[in-house]
Design a protein that fits this description.
about 300 residues; alpha+beta; five-stranded antiparallel β-sheet; 10 helices; 8 strands; about 35% helix; binds adenosine-5'-triphosphate; binds magnesium ion
């Protein structure tokens, strides 16, 4: 079915990124709560149909580790993209109180399965793996969003600022500077996966901007410095897993099938992990430590026990 704005009842803002705003909405005809992302585009009417056609592949991205796509529409120079609402929000704001080893394994497992699905079933490389693009709900489910399905959309983005947190792999940073955009492979997503795991464990981005004099120094550390490591307290299996993902030489990084066979994820298959309990605590912590941020309100308000 198709969705249009007149069918939607707008609710609160869920967050804000570089290209637009995500709002909670109610789709009245189906009584479905959704998340609607508004993406401002550099106006180019001729490209709109190409984008809608490219977005159509999202209707085939149906698997437990991918956020469900409901549909997209245009108004003037904005794309409105409706997807499954994830009521626990993104990982960047869920990991404040820390992530125990088994929870890290469970989240990583879901991410690897999601990435492998995109690659094997849809021939898609995610290209934007980072904590804000990994969403959770109160059922304890972990799902990926915002993967690169539309080259046309990518080209039309109204790029207002470049983030100061780069999850780009070293080879991509070097490739960009050589204007060599064709070098993106799954290995670059594997790097971003490793960096995302470290951010979850540390509760902050591992190359903090305040450590570097400027963005050049920061990117230079990613390319030339040693790869970051998990903080103390994680298992050897976890350390080994992250170290493989963050091999500086892209060709040496494991494939998704190889990652699924690593002890860190093999052990997870037989472990009992209380994800529902962890998410509930993580949301409680996030609401208690709510700070005024540029990303808008911090998830759902605290609910009564
Ligand atoms: P960037 O623009 O650099 O990609 P971002 O991923 O944070 O950063 P958006 O994709 O616009 O930017 O998302 C903004 C915020 O909205 C996210 O950080 C996330 O917390 C929230 N969000 C996005 N999609 C959903 C969703 N489906 N359900 C619930 N919250 C969401
Ligand atoms: Mg996003």
């Amino acid at each position: 079915f198709s969705i249009n704005m007149s069918e939607l009842e707008l609710a609160e803002e869920l967050g804000r990124g570089n290209y637009g705003t995500v709002k909670k909405v109610l789709h009245r005809p189906t009584n479905t709560v959704m998340a609607m992302k508004e993406i401002r585009l550099e106006l180019d009417e001729g490209k709109l149909n190409a984008i809608i056609m490219e977005l159509d592949i999202l209707h085939r991205a149906i698997t437990p580790e991918i956020v469900e796509f409901y549909g997209a529409f245009f108004i003037e120079s904005c794309v409105y993209y409706c997807m499954e609402y994830m009521d626990a929000g993104s990982l960047d704001r869920l990991c404040g109180a820390g992530v125990p080893d088994p929870v890290l394994a469970r989240i990583t497992h879901a991410m690897v399965r999601g990435l492998r699905f995109l690659k094997d079933e849809l021939q898609i490389i995610h290209r934007d793996v980072k904590p804000t693009n990994v969403l959770m709900n109160r059922k304890g489910e972990v799902k990926l969003c915002d993967f690169g399905v539309s080259g046309q959309l990518e080209k039309s983005l109204a790029k207002t600022n470049i983030g100061c947190q780069s999850y780009m792999a070293p080879e991509r940073i070097q490739g960009e500077s050589q204007n060599n955009l064709g070098t993106y492979t799954v290995a670059s997503d594997v790097w971003s996966l490793g960096l995302t795991m470290i951010e979850m464990a540390m509760g902050k981005y591992p190359y903090p901007p305040e450590t570097y004099a400027n963005v050049f120094a920061q990117l230079s550390a990613i390319v030339h410095g040693p790869a970051p490591e998990l903080p103390p307290g994680y298992s050897e299996e976890a350390e080994a897993f992250v170290a493989m993902c963050l091999r500086k030489d892209a060709a040496q990084r494991p494939t998704y099938s190889e990652l699924l066979e690593q002890p860190f994820l093999v052990n997870d298959r037989t472990l009992e992990v209380d994800m529902v309990g962890w998410v509930a605590k993580a949301i409680e912590y996030k609401n208690a430590h709510r700070v005024a941020s540029s990303s808008g309100p911090d998830g759902p308000p605290p609910s009564a026990p």
